[in-house]
Design goal:
By secondary structure, this protein is α/β, with parallel strands linked by helices. The chain contains 29 helices and 19 strands. The chain has a five-stranded parallel sheet with strand order 8-11-14-4-15. Strand 18 and strand 19 form a beta hairpin. The protein is elongated, with a radius of gyration of 33 Å. This is PrkA family serine protein kinase. Keywords: Kinase, Transferase.
């Protein structure tokens, strides 16, 4: 690999920053720019809304949800912060819809977007992602924005402190705010005529008090010649969002309840300037409040509902009126997307408080639940391992999925009735219910939303807890010189630590232990299936049996005959053979026609698409054929070799281990699953 020289690194950095980042432009240049590209003058909601589309979208037809690639693929960080789960992407879709509605001026621009969810659901991380992408977007030409600075002030304003000869717009306002409203409206009318966007550009903001002061003094000096003021005392500069610089992105965290001060939000007097300008002079104000810093971009309120009720009143003006009112100072217009985050206990506490009615009315709640598809939950743990310095550890099949299944079981509500078990419901949410199964996933989801306290997925065990236990299991395996992580070792760590985890209520522990037993049973069935696959699997035989099954199905549907392979004679479809396959999927005789038609339609679709028949490509048919093959071969298997761990050198046992390795097991993991599931297989078959 070629070493990067300092010159290379310097060049890469230079190419990464906007070309005009250090340049100062004239106001008439800016006017020409916005005429050419009106979107430069967008407000915060419009810019954030466009940002989500800029990084790409995909439409999930099944869920009816737009997936935003900045969340589903994370192109900026090579997928390090990818979000998984239908529920999470639905929440993100809802958040973006609120922002887009605000961009059109439909009302949400005057509301706080409140992300509500349990601990570890990803709401804080999503908020962090939005801020990072907004910073990146404003570095790009598509997301560029500008502000202004006052220059040469001491030439005209005689009492101006020489240190303040150049003053950047304290609120980073758009340069169009320098135009009086009547003239500004003329410009905006022309901009909107050329604008290709689903929103209209508006700007009715007043200059911040300090800028208003400078504008009044300068206009008085130049006999109200606005052009002279803008030509001689205003420079246009590129504005790039940066949370580290507290510029257009700000995070506000609640401190000690007894020491909360509204100046943290709205700014305060700059005491070092009072001696120079006097207490009531707008130049003696320090625009360092969180709302000031977030102007033109994003305000993020962490654990928002932990703030005192009186402190939250500042958010009423900030959201509804889009202004802030510092002590002993005039109101200041603001333009920002206000996002709040809160956990369930604080929300429940504030929801029933009548004195919070005004605040609650100015929030748009967006539920951010846990993931409810366990295969997607498993991807969260894999992401965790990808992003860490994991020892050389082989993750055995089912380890992540079974951990995810346990998490999901703690989050979903018990289904009504006796037709569907809790595990079946989790499988249904995971998309594992076959068409022939009598399970209505939509109805299950509606039932879950109706019976849950707030919404399904808003309580239970967090991915953070499960990830921690997986990490513990990995380190434990490392200490014991084991190079593989099996579901059994993960289960052991869950069982040990459920009672000791601070976020799990004591009254839930027994129930969670029962769920863990359900997961153990599910894993046992899957492990047995893997062992059966290793003992009896034959690709050629499955293909041959699959072709035979389809020949007889097509003849059955067409009321035709089949040519016997041995005699060459025409015969009726072999109903006994057909049922021997279908019964392996527990398909009753009164549903056999539906299944046969389903498989026939699948074959026809593939034929139209130019693809040949392969039973491996149809999950249900493959499973049925595998199970039939097992029934046909099991009488030839030496089950005593499965039970005995002392026959590892046996050729037959070694072949089984190799077959399991082909399924994704390590050699040690294959040996473990043979001893675990193999003993169960042997026991059931010997007893049978």
């Amino acid at each position: 690999m070629t070493k990067e020289t300092l010159e290379d690194l310097s060049q890469h950095y230079k190419e990464s920053v906007p070309a005009d980042l250090r340049e100062a432009k004239r106001f008439d240049w800016y006017l020409d720019e916005v005429y050419d590209d009106p979107r430069i003058a967008r407000n915060s909601h419009q810019r954030v809304a466009d940002m989500f589309d800029y990084y790409g979208t995909e439409y999930d037809e099944d869920a009816g949800v737009v997936e935003y690639l900045m969340a589903s693929e994370d192109p900026l960080h090579d997928g390090e912060n990818t979000f998984y789960g239908r529920e999470v992407h639905e929440s993100i879709h809802e958040f973006v819809n609120k922002v887009k509605s605000g961009a059109r001026g439909l009302g949400p621009e005057k509301r706080i977007k409140l992300l509500l969810g349990p601990v570890g659901s990803g709401k804080s991380h999503f908020d962090w992602m939005v801020r990072r992408y907004f910073e990146d977007y404003t570095m790009d030409d598509d997301g560029r924005m500008y502000t202004f600075r006052w220059v040469n002030l001491c030439d005209i304003v005689r009492d101006q402190d020489p240190a303040d000869d150049t003053v950047v717009s304290p609120m980073n306002q758009d340069p169009l705010v320098l135009l009086p409203q009547e003239q500004r409206d003329q410009v905006l009318e022309r901009l909107n005529e050329a604008l290709d966007a689903p929103y209209t550009i508006r700007n009715e903001q007043s200059l911040d008090p300090a800028s208003e002061f400078y504008m009044d003094r300068l206009l008085a000096h130049y006999d109200d010649d606005l052009k002279a003021v803008l030509d001689n005392h205003v420079e246009i500069i590129r504005l790039v969002a940066s949370e580290n610089k507290r510029q257009c992105v700000e995070t506000f965290e609640p401190k000690d309840k007894k020491n909360q001060d509204e100046t943290e939000l709205t700014g305060d007097v700059n005491y070092s300037k009072i001696a120079i300008y006097g207490e009531s002079d707008p130049r003696a104000f320090d625009y360092s409040g969180a709302f000031c810093n977030a102007n033109r971009g994003l305000f993020s309120g962490e654990e928002l509902l932990k703030l005192q009720r009186e402190f939250l009143y500042d958010f009423l003006h900030a959201s509804q009126e889009q202004t802030i009112k510092p002590k002993n100072n005039p109101r200041i217009d603001i333009d920002q997307v206000i996002v709040g985050r809160t956990n369930m206990p604080e929300y429940r506490d504030k929801k029933g408080d009548e004195k919070m009615e005004a605040f609650n009315d100015r929030t748009k709640r967006i539920d951010f639940p846990y993931v409810l598809e366990y295969s997607e939950e498993a991807e969260i743990y894999r992401k965790m391992l990808r992003n860490a310095d994991v020892p050389d550890m082989h993750i055995e099949p089912h380890a992540m999925e079974m951990a995810g299944l346990f998490g999901v079981l703690t989050r979903i509500t018990d289904p009504d009735g006796e037709n569907v078990t809790l595990v079946q419901k989790a499988k249904a949410y995971n998309g594992e219910i076959d068409e022939a199964d009598d399970v209505d996933v939509k109805k299950l989801r509606e039932e879950g939303e109706r019976t849950a306290d707030i919404a399904e997925g808003m309580d239970g065990v967090s991915a953070r807890f499960i990830g921690d236990e997986i990490a513990e299991a990995i380190m434990d395996a490392t200490h014991r010189d084991r190079e593989y992580l099996s579901p059994l070792s993960v289960f052991t760590h869950f069982e040990r630590n459920l009672e000791n985890h601070g976020s799990i209520p004591e009254e839930n522990v027994d129930r969670y232990h029962r769920y863990l037993e359900l997961v153990r049973q599910e894993y046992k069935e899957r492990a047995i299936e893997d062992v059966r696959h290793a003992l009896a699997y034959d690709v050629d035989e499955i293909r041959r049996q699959g072709e035979k099954y389809m020949d007889h199905v097509m003849a059955y549907i067409d009321d035709a005959t089949v040519t016997d392979e041995l005699t060459g004679r025409e015969q009726e479809p072999d109903e006994t053979f057909l049922r021997s396959v279908e019964e392996k999927l527990d398909i009753p005789s009164d549903r056999k026609d539906d299944f046969r038609q389903e498989v026939s339609n699948w074959v026809s679709r593939r034929a139209r698409e130019g693809e040949g028949f392969d039973p491996q490509d149809n999950d249900r048919l493959r499973r049925a054929l595998e199970r039939k093959l097992w029934e046909d071969k099991k009488h030839n298997i030496n089950f005593s070799a499965l039970v005995s761990a002392n026959e590892l050198d046996d050729d037959e046992r070694s072949a089984w281990v190799d077959a399991l390795i082909e399924q994704g097991y390590s050699r040690e993991g294959a040996t473990e699953v043979l001893e675990f599931a193999g003993a169960e297989v042997a026991k059931s078959e010997l007893e049978g």
